[in-house]
Input
Amino acid sequence: MREGHERRIRAGHEMRWGGLAGIGAVIFAIIARLVLGGTPRSTETMGVIATYMNDHRGRILFAALLYGIAIALFLWFGAALSTAFRRADETSDAPAVVLAGFTLISAIGFVAVSMFGAMTYALTVHAGLLILAAVPYTTATIMVTIAGIAMAVPLTASAIAIARTHIFPMWMAYFAGLVALLSVVAAFMVWGTRGAWAPGNWLQTYVPTVLLGLWVLAASALLVREHLPVMAARTPPHAMGPA
Output
């Protein structure tokens, strides 16, 4: 029994590292967004977008690196979350969907920020190509908007897993479901070309992103506190029997 107790303690510590990764992901993403400064809308003229990319070349590249770190930590958080769900309910497919969903969204995000950073470098080094600046800028914006559908996958699976295992409070399940719904709705606004309905504006980008960040912070805090009652009470099968 002592061995089983020690294994549960180590499992809790593993979850704590995943929670710290989630907090780090949010922090790095916020810093990256602040580094970018005031970005033009995707519907701005080519001249406005080209001027922004040329004048903020260094900041854009630095922000791309910060976003890359945030995405890596986000994936670590997703893996820890999936592990917590799997240990609490080994018969459900939800943990696998959670891990696959976080992997998918991380891959999309890394490709988007890498492409944006690479195109910024290429266009500003070869100044004659700056006339094409609106192409990668708008492409990255649309990719992030459509990725809301992918983001809804792990969030929905997390909501189901929480409802089944109760390792988090039930309001976390409802919260995840709300963010998933808003992410999908935002993705279907991709046809907008003006005002608040255009991709990249606050309605499609910042509302679901901010809510996602708050959900990740809440889940991360619970993981850091090792607030996992089902895992704490559950004894691994191999640890059962006389000590």
